[in-house]
Specification:
single chain; alpha/beta; Rossmann fold; Cobalt-precorrin-4 Transmethylase, domain 1; 4 domains; 17 helices; 19 strands
Length: 459
């Protein structure tokens, strides 16, 4: 370890910044955010820096007297000789000093900071690569949402109460792990602190301090892991059990917690691992065992995902649950295929339907679908493609209407097959697209060659 990582209390303390340009302004801003009083010394000080509140501007060349009463120093000039002088004089007085982009003159390093006050995370490469530390901070930004500051403040508020009630240190640690990585934390993070407090008090009142299980209904999007939301990623790393569908891509399943139990409940055509009622009961049983259950669904849970049926059962059983929206296939797949769902010249409305065959037919409102200047997106319609095209023509759409099949959209196996209502069934017979697919009908399909921005391998 090249440097001792510490956090300095700079509140109401005088700190010196030597330099008057943009870099000095950034450093002064960090000190001000920490509650410090700042003295800036430079022959020229830009107006934006001088205008900062709680900044004492000294227009002069740096001298030793400017160190009087100072707790910490940052040198941010473009003159290495001045920076060296600042460093030597500060270290002679045992004042911590940082020289921007010159580790050899520093007695401390300014880290990249992830601020979730009172939770703070600092990154440093010991001055070797400031850009790398900022990149690492950016990665952690995705994992620690802004409202974690609310969670830290909540824990601080109840710290003494918990310490008095749970006196054994090891048991107290487990208590906080349960609280800060379970239902209580989720209530705080979603803004429901009243419920979080009630749950915390219930945990304190119980002999074993155990919190109830919970179910997370999370939309995994259409396949590309980059389309997951930050909240989805956070809950995927917390779950004890993962219950996932056939439409959830393998790379996304692999992003769940590695030690979590994984249960496949996918449905393929004429092949259902579990009936929906059995899945509902499974979620209830696992939650009642005190487990955090991730119900991972392709696309969005509430768009042909039967999420509504599952939360009805959970609510009836009194099981806490959360629903995390995902990018539905219609939006994600169409975007990656270069097909806008609406366009002023082609479609002023868009309708989503499921083309799942029942008793060999599609029971759809054909009159509503066969309207001009409208985009129709059909989920699970591949095996009924002949019926779909024939019925749309029968109910008024020209047989020259553009239509596309997108296979495994947003993944590296994406493939787009286009044609018209008259020609696509024959094209599909030759090309043999494989599920999962999405079908898009309407004039917007003609824009694909012009607007497509992302063509994965095989598309």
């Amino acid at each position: 370890m090249d440097y001792l990582p510490i956090f300095v209390n700079a509140r109401n303390r005088l700190c010196l910044v030597v330099g008057g340009g943009e870099v000095a302004k950034r450093k002064a801003g960090v000190l001000l955010d920490a509650g410090a009083r700042v003295r800036v010394v430079a022959p020229q000080i830009e107006a934006g820096l001088a205008a900062l509140t709680r900044v004492e501007s000294v227009v002069a060349r740096f001298e030793a007297k400017h160190l009087d009463g100072v707790t910490l120093v940052i040198a941010a000039t473009s003159d290495r000789e001045v920076n060296r002088q600042v460093s030597e004089l500060a270290q002679a007085r045992n004042i911590p000093v940082n020289v921007v982009d010159d580790p050899g003159l520093c007695s401390f390093i300014m880290p990249a900071i992830l601020d979730r006050s009172p939770l703070m995370v600092a990154f440093s490469s010991g001055g070797a690569s400031p850009v790398l530390t900022r990149m690492m901070r950016g990665k952690l930004e995705m994992m620690i949402p802004q409202n974690y500051s609310r969670l830290a403040a909540f824990a601080e508020r109840f710290r003494e109460q918990v310490k008095k009630r749970v006196t054994h240190p090891a048991k107290r640690r487990i208590f906080w792990e349960n609280a800060l990585d379970g239902v209580v934390a989720e209530k705080v993070l979603t803004g429901d602190e009243a419920s979080a407090e009630a749950m915390l008090q219930q945990m304190l009142a119980s002999e074993d301090n155990i919190v109830r299980g919970e179910v997370y209904l999370v939309g995994a999007g259409p396949g590309d892991p980059d389309l997951l939301t930050f909240r989805a990623l956070r809950l995927m790393q917390k779950a004890d059990v993962v219950v996932y569908d056939n439409l959830v891509s393998k790379p996304i399943v692999e992003m769940t917690r590695r030690d979590a139990q994984r249960i496949y409940v996918g449905k393929k055509r004429d092949d259902h691992t579990l009936r929906q009622e059995e899945i509902n009961d499974l979620l209830v049983r696992l939650a009642k065992e005190g487990k955090r259950v991730l119900r991972l669904k392709g696309g969005d849970p509430f768009i042909f995902g039967r999420g509504g049926e599952e939360i009805e059962t959970l609510a009836a059983e009194g099981i806490p649950f959360q629903v995390v929206p995902g990018i539905t296939a219609a939006s994600g797949v169409a975007s990656y295929a270069g097909i806008p769902l609406t366009h002023r010249d082609h479609a002023q409305s868009c309708i989503f339907v499921t083309g799942h065959l029942k008793d060999g037919t599609m029971n759809l409102d054909w009159d509503a679908l066969a309207r001009p200047r409208q985009t129709v997106v059909v989920y699970m319609g591949l095996h009924g493609l002949d019926i779909l095209c024939a019925e749309l023509v029968k109910h008024g759409l020209p047989d020259t209407t553009a239509i596309a099949i997108v296979q495994q959209g947003t993944t590296q196996n994406q493939r787009v097959i286009t044609g018209t209502l008259a020609t696509l069934p024959g094209i599909a017979e030759r090309e043999k697209p494989q599920a999962p697919t999405l079908i898009i009908v309407g004039g917007v399909v003609t824009l694909r060659d012009k607007l497509s921005w992302f063509h994965p391998q095989g598309s």
